[in-house]
Amino acid sequence: MPPIKEQPVRDLRESYVCEECGAAFRTRGLKNNHTNRKHRRRYNCDHCESAFALNADLQRHKRTVHKETIPSSSKAFTCPYDGCATPTKKFTRRDNLSRHMVRCLNAQAKPV
Ligand SMILES: [Zn+2]
Ligand SMILES: [Zn+2]
Ligand SMILES: [Zn+2]
């Protein structure tokens, strides 16, 4: 029987060990840093397998890797008035929509 290979001994009492992967760190801060970056990836990319700890990282990933632009639905406004002549027209700026809504209301207020 060959002798059991000796494992390098780490003093675990002095280190903070990651529960997820067993990596040891000198300070709690380093360990938390590691856990957050490596294992707390709450933001999943809906285009690929990537996941990120920070939403900002995910957004950057989507922009750079998938050339994704900000979804138009969240940035575009449409006229809420029923009698609008152009109800599907999208306004990318709220002030543009406001100006349109004033015109829209005026147009509707006109006697036919
Ligand atoms: Zn870990
Ligand atoms: Zn991705
Ligand atoms: Zn309108």
From TrEMBL:
<dbReference type="Pfam" id="PF00096">
    <property type="entry name" value="zf-C2H2"/>
</dbReference>
<dbReference type="InterPro" id="IPR051061">
    <property type="entry name" value="Zinc_finger_trans_reg"/>
</dbReference>
<keyword id="KW-0539">Nucleus</keyword>
<keyword id="KW-0863">Zinc-finger</keyword>
<dbReference type="GO" id="GO:0006357">
    <property type="term" value="P:regulation of transcription by RNA polymerase II"/>
</dbReference>
<dbReference type="InterPro" id="IPR013087">
    <property type="entry name" value="Znf_C2H2_type"/>
</dbReference>
<keyword id="KW-0479">Metal-binding</keyword>
<keyword id="KW-0804">Transcription</keyword>
<protein>
    <recommendedName>
        <fullName>C2H2-type domain-containing protein</fullName>
    </recommendedName>
</protein>
<feature type="domain" description="C2H2-type">
    <location>
        <begin position="43"/>
        <end position="71"/>
    </location>
</feature>
<keyword id="KW-0805">Transcription regulation</keyword>
<dbReference type="InterPro" id="IPR036236">
    <property type="entry name" value="Znf_C2H2_sf"/>
</dbReference>
<dbReference type="GO" id="GO:0008270">
    <property type="term" value="F:zinc ion binding"/>
</dbReference>
<dbReference type="GO" id="GO:0005634">
    <property type="term" value="C:nucleus"/>
</dbReference>
<feature type="domain" description="C2H2-type">
    <location>
        <begin position="16"/>
        <end position="44"/>
    </location>
</feature>
<keyword id="KW-0862">Zinc</keyword>
